[in-house]
Design goal:
It contains 13 helices and two strands. The protein is mainly alpha-helical and about 400 residues long.
């Protein structure tokens, strides 16, 4: 009971205790899936199903034909019974297409090289995060907490963040099961249990997807005004944020790393996932098989990099930077934490000015109301107003 109470009082305790089993389980699943991917990428000729054998016969006949296949942008591309490339020839029904030649190519690539790439990259990211944590360690403040809190995020910002984060995690888990479940879970759970799990996860993935898109749009406009790059961000980039040296680089409300996550992760990859996800989720708008296959390929690649980047974001926001999770969970940070990790924003809070006011100062000079950096001899520095209390 005491262990459970401590986990509820301090969520980071729960994160630490659950981290190792989670990382080991995910690592094992991805390793199994990555190793097995080449084996189930295609259908072996000796075990070919009748439909696959018929497809090969038709394709061989076409290959032996003296009439070259038109290009993929030509309206004559494909024939009534063999549609290879063309984007709009058959509209939304494609009812007369017997063999869609690109389907086998898509299956081989999805279950082979693309699955291997996804599993390998996610495994490497997990290993890199664990190695970084063990070798470099978290970036701490280096000082004791002051006991004075500063409000960092209001209730709306926290709700938007967690709604987006939770929907993303659901999509990531269900997507990985859809991608690797047949290889990893089917042998362990059996056909009946896995069929039920896959059925539930498929619909969960399809219905949570639009919710994630809506949350991402709201999140974009909620945090946009704090994520424009300023001159001071270049100092953070040049020093790598002090992650390796544990040196605290002055930063505004968001540092350059957080802004990069916002633009490359939340915005760019979020846009890729949203567009391709909608194409795959709502198939009644004239998409051909070829369009769906391209969308699926881009969706998997986008998910790979999005999940990989999110794992880094999660690490930095929890174990990597103690106190960061508390900020997004409760909305406040200790004054010592603010001064160490976001010194420019801390000076803005002391001066009572909006975030971003001092971002173009590198290094930040003396903001209004703060003591001078080098007071004249014989004159004590004048204290500025104390930080605003948390509400």
């Amino acid at each position: 009971m005491r262990a459970i109470e401590s986990m509820l009082d301090d969520p980071t305790v729960a994160l630490r205790r659950l981290a190792m089993p989670f990382f080991v389980s995910l690592l094992a699943m991805l390793l199994m899936a990555t190793g097995a991917a080449p084996a189930w990428a295609g259908v072996p000729t000796g075990k070919a199903e009748p439909a696959y054998a018929q497809e090969q016969t038709i394709l061989q006949t076409e290959a032996d034909s003296r009439s070259p296949e038109p290009g993929r942008t030509s309206a004559a591309s494909g024939r009534v019974h063999i549609d290879r490339h063309y984007l709009g020839q058959y509209g939304h029904s494609e009812g007369t297409v017997i063999v869609q030649r690109g389907g086998n190519t898509w299956r081989v690539w999805r279950n082979g090289p693309i699955a291997t790439l996804m599993g390998t990259l996610l495994v490497l990211v997990l290993v890199a995060i664990y190695a970084f944590y063990r070798l470099i360690g978290p970036v701490r403040t280096g000082e004791a907490e002051s006991g004075r809190s500063i409000q960092r995020f209001n209730r709306w910002e926290r709700w938007v963040h967690w709604a987006t984060a939770i929907s993303f995690i659901i999509l990531a888990v269900t997507g990985l099961v859809i991608m690797f479940g047949k290889v990893v879970l089917l042998p362990l759970l059996g056909h009946d249990v896995f069929a039920f799990l896959a059925y539930v996860f498929k619909y969960l993935h399809n219905f949570i997807g639009p919710l994630f898109i809506a949350c991402s749009i709201v999140m974009f406009f909620t945090f946009l005004h704090r994520n424009f790059f300023k001159r001071i961000d270049w100092q953070w980039v040049k020093q790598g944020g002090g992650m390796m040296t544990h040196r605290h680089v002055p930063a505004g409300f968001f540092n350059a790393g957080e802004k990069a996550w916002f633009w490359l992760g939340v915005t760019l990859l979020g846009l890729v996932m949203s567009v391709t996800g909608l194409i795959l989720d709502f198939v009644g708008f004239g998409q051909t098989r070829y369009v769906l296959q391209i969308a699926n390929t881009l969706h998997i690649l986008g998910a790979t990099f999005y999940i990989a980047a999110a794992m880094g974001h999660i690490y930095i926001g929890t174990w990597g930077t103690p106190g960061a999770y508390h900020a997004m969970r409760h909305g406040t940070v200790d004054e010592t934490w603010a001064k160490a990790h976001h010194a420019v924003w801390y000076e803005e809070v002391k001066a009572g000015v909006p975030p971003g006011t001092f971002d173009d100062r590198t290094p930040p000079d003396n903001p209004p109301g703060s003591p001078p950096a080098n007071p004249p001899p014989g004159k004590a520095p004048s204290g500025g107003p104390p930080p605003r209390p948390a509400h």
